[in-house]
Amino acid sequence: MRGATHARWAACAVAVALAATACGGGGDSGGGGGAGIVSSSWGDPQNPLEPANTNEVQGGKVLDMLFRGLKRYDPKTGAATDMLAAKIETSDSQNFTITLKDGWTFSNGEPVTAHSFVDAWNYAADVRNKQNNAPFFADIKGYADLHPASGEPTAKTMSGLVVKDDKTFTVALDKKFSTWPDTLGYQAFSPLPKAFFTDHSGWLDKPVGNGPYTVDSYTKGTGMKLRAWDGYPGADKAQNGGVDLKVYTDNNTAYTDLISGNLDLVDDVPAQQLKNVKNDLGDRYINQPALIIQTLTFPLYQPQWNKEGMEKVRRGISMAVNRDEITRQIFRGTRTPAKDWTSPALGEKGGYSPTLCGSACTFDPVEAKKLIQEGGGLPGGRVTLTSNVDTGSHRDWMDAVCNSINNALGQGPVCTVNPVGTFADFRNQQSSYKLTGPFRSGWQADYPLIQNFLQPLYFTGASSNYGKFSDPGFDKLVDEANQESDPAKAIAKFQDAEKILAEQMPAIPLWYQNGSAGYAERLSNVALNQFSVPVYNEIKVS
Fold this sequence. Notes:
disordered N terminus; 16 helices; 27% helix; alpha+beta
């Protein structure tokens, strides 16, 4: 779990492109029995493409093509189904025996064994390796010995991982976690070949995995070429010859290239093009709900945002945002005003609640102004919103949010925007806790569980808790929910924890984000999974 856990920063959850590129069509062929190559828009990942180090969308797209883990999330339903796992057995929701299927290898011919998983997980947890997704392994016994809060490790491996034979290993957690097996489709839990450890720098230049694609070449700032692996043993073989991922600094440019025939697939249709997209693409435009939410997170590590009474100010700011108007005018049906801290794509049985945030997420300028005054006013009389502005129409909606706040308070331009030029720069400021006002926090779930929307972001010390929110009551309820074997009771406890968010408002839910994409006439069988990522292996090229 990512906190101890995390999920992919669509920032994390919007598709963000970073560096410049020369753009061209995807008409060449290769691999996959001579099938055509798909050209698709992309953004350089923030971090190296290690499964335990990549925690944002762009890197996640690649890992999803290069790796297969114990579980895989069904592209249509999101259900966690067995992939390399033949079975995962437990009698107490704390101790698990994992048995692997036969016949799986990495693309370099090396067999995938129990050691491939155990060695990868120990590497991920080792504090010396500085892996972003290390907290996903915090539930395993011995994690604290390998990943102490300070100082050097006191162990070489986690005591909770034991290899029994080539096809079997056991996992002991430090406490019950009934849905732990369902988290194992997340890419941080991928197996790694021996080459990752023996030639780490070489592996990073050209990663080797066990998925349906291999890396042909990668030029940072320009793009990556992936080719179908003919020897892939899985049932979900690539239906095309490969994918050329092309880096863009502006998704409007990517969209223009799509319309002009120089690109096959854009998986983040820019807001400025939404008025044209149906006429431009017709049925080749995809707009569907996704496991994504956009929020404004408060830097509670800044004393001015965390002093007594500021919860009223934070709630007041939330109530000053006219979500209905902003989503209608700017996003034209690709966003839905948020009512809680999860996503409607979970479904109400999965924990989504259209009433949980209640009045705190309802536009009420009179009450907003009253609450902000009762809480002591805006710190320094001002509030500054920060986001990257290279993609996602972030500048447009931030300006709109500030206009809404300014109009509600009637005190002049007290809300202003701090635009950051690139996603990488924004993420670096965010992850180093340098921001002084509310900042954009997009979240794209790693797995379709309510836990993944709450624990990684708001649990004390969690891996993506960039606002440094901490509440003992929230933590206690999350722990209890994780240990609950009855799914309905677990969800109820998670929602009780979520009610604390509604009271404290460490982050303002803005809107749920749909997955959107547009594609060329020569493609067919194009779909987005529940995480809004194209199901690349299923795309066919005519």
